[in-house]
Amino acid sequence: MTHAAKLAREEAFTDAIRIADNAIGDEPPEAQSLRIIAALKTMRDAGQATVAGTVRVNYLGRAQDAARRAWTQDHSPNDTGPEREATAGVDTPLGRLRAVAWRRAWKGTARGERIAWAGEYWLNDEPITLAEIKAAGLDRRPTTRNRLKKDDSR
Questions:
Q1: Which candidate, 18, 89, 97, 124, has a CA 20 to 30 Å from the CA of 137?
Q2: d(C-alpha 138, C-alpha 117), whole Å
Q3: 125 dihedral zone (left: phi>0; alpha: psi -120 to 50; beta)
Q4: What is the DSSP secondary-structure string of 22-39?
């Protein structure tokens, strides 16, 4: 099950519990309705996994920067390949996002051979793709307006 599917599943359980609670209202609940709500709560994992807030935090960028800093401290600039990697992570509302970074040879046709960053990502020790990271809201880059404000202040 992908991380995005897990998020959707948890949201569906939360909505089902809220709807059942609203249906009961102020009346004293019957035994059957309590059993239904208890069953929904036991099926749901421990807590709702969504990133919501007014502050845009780029957890992916922080993890990448930390992994690249760790790599530059441990390796020489000419080291390449996944066998020479560095790992770093950041705590997010969804758990620990870990980035593994290394440098690889990149052959461009017009530019010759260069070295580029490569990496893989893990959320709570499960592999996660960039698309799933973005869908979970962990890659929240500043808006264009905020980037322009920062550039104007220099």
A1: 18
A2: 20
A3: left
A4: HHHTTSPPPHHHHHHHHH
The predicted-structure confidence for 21-70, as pLDDT tens digits, reads as follows 777 777 777 777 777 777 777 666 544 455 555 567 788 989 999 998 99
Q: Computed from CA positions of residues 118, 122, 128, 131, in that sequence, does the dihedral angle turn out positive or negative?
A: negative
**Residue at token pair 């992908």:** 2
Nearest to 122 by CA among 83, 84, 96: 96
Please check whether residue 109 is in contact with residue 100, taking contact to mean a CB–CB distance below 8 angstroms: no
Return d(Cα 88, Cα 16) in angstroms, integer.
Answer: 37
Question: Taking the model in full, what pTM does it have?
Answer: 0.54
Q: Helix 3-24 and helix 31-43: axis angle, to 10°?
A: 160
